[in-house]
């Protein structure tokens, strides 16, 4: 009789111990799982911003002059991060009246020199193209007047449907490139939308760049504001070069 009671007590003790161990194990698992989840969240919150920061600036924009690389026939995207950044730089230059800020959006000099067959393309770039571009930036800033500091940039409308591929031998060029005329910079003042034009964008290695801001036929004597208008405005003559 005593043996039976002893065995019964032993079994109850063992069963109770087993249950206790299961409870402890479950608690430890829950704690471990909670810590693991918290760790994963912490890692996500620190890794994602680092990745974004690292990839936000492509290496080619800081270490390689695109004009030193060969041209491609890739059609430029208006949704790429590089293009959006260039146009933001252009708008910043207009609103501040500082043309230097817009230089990343302007066609690279090294690309122009390798592209054109004219005499002394470097001089033409500096005196005619870049000189007119800077004057046009200042003219657009003056046009905005008191609204320059408060005008909100909306975006750019590029008539990609009218773009054309300029084949080598045309427009004094020895290399082909994409061209599109009369894009529109959209901005808001108060509750109203307005726009000004960009006379000409041309491509280099699958990226659009401004080559003429106010007018293709600028004399360089003064800056030109390209067809300012309420709303999106009208896409004018696209041209061929």
UniProtKB/TrEMBL annotation:
Protein name, as recorded: Uncharacterized protein
Q: Which organism is it from?
A: Acidithrix ferrooxidans
């Amino acid at each position: 009789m005593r043996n039976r009671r002893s065995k019964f007590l032993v079994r109850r003790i063992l069963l109770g111990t087993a249950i206790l161990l299961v409870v402890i194990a479950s608690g430890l698992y829950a704690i471990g799982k909670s810590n693991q989840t918290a760790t994963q969240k912490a890692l996500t919150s620190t890794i994602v911003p680092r990745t974004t920061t690292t990839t936000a600036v492509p290496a080619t924009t800081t270490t390689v002059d695109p004009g030193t690389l060969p041209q491609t026939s890739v059609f430029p995207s208006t949704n790429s991060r590089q293009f959006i950044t260039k146009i933001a730089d252009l708008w910043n230059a207009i609103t501040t009246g500082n043309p230097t800020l817009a230089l990343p959006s302007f066609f690279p000099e090294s690309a122009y020199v390798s592209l054109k067959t004219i005499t002394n393309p470097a001089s033409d770039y500096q005196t005619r193209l870049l000189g007119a571009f800077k004057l046009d930036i200042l003219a657009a800033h003056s046009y905005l007047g008191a609204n320059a500091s408060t005008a909100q940039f909306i975006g750019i409308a590029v008539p990609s449907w009218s773009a054309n591929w300029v084949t080598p031998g045309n427009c004094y060029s020895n290399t082909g490139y994409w061209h599109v005329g009369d894009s529109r910079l959209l901005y808001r003042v108060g509750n109203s939308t307005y726009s000004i034009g960009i006379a000409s964008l041309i491509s280099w290695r699958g990226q659009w760049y401004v080559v003429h801001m106010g007018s293709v036929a600028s004399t360089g004597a003064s800056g030109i504001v390209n067809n300012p208008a309420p709303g999106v405005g009208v896409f004018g003559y696209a041209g061929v070069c």
